[in-house]
Write a structure and sequence with these properties.
Elements: H1 12-25, H2 29-39, H3 42-59, H4 64-71, H5 75-87, H6 91-99
């Protein structure tokens, strides 16, 4: 993303918090898709989809080359996502963990 001088009237921390609050207030996948359509360019959406698509595969321990062959995501992008998983803020791992289906306890057969 290009860096440009910010006007003194823009508080980037406040703006980011407002964006996060807006995202948290969306109530369905359809609402989120509509918001992302308005917020992001098609290239930005594609970049986010690519990054997110490799997260579960990296968490499963698949090698970069195998992920690349399965997704066509560049090795560079895969490496960046892997670095975020290892050294980042924990957002990818948290979101992935929350998406995992809850395991149902096994029922015991009656004797």
């Amino acid at each position: 993303m290009k860096r440009r001088p910010l006007s003194p009237s823009l508080d980037s921390r406040r703006s980011e918090r407002a964006l996060c609050e807006a995202l948290l207030n969306l109530r369905s996948v359809a609402e989120m898709q509509a918001f992302l359509d308005d917020l992001c360019t098609p290239a930005e959406r594609e970049a986010m989809r690519e990054r997110w698509s490799v997260v579960p595969q990296l968490l499963a321990g698949k090698p970069y080359r195998q992920i690349h062959e399965a997704t066509a995501v560049s090795i560079t992008t895969i490496g960046r996502v892997a670095r975020c998983l290892e050294q980042g803020a924990g957002g990818y791992a948290l979101a992935a963990a929350r998406l995992k289906p809850a395991r149902k306890p096994r029922s015991r057969a009656a004797s």
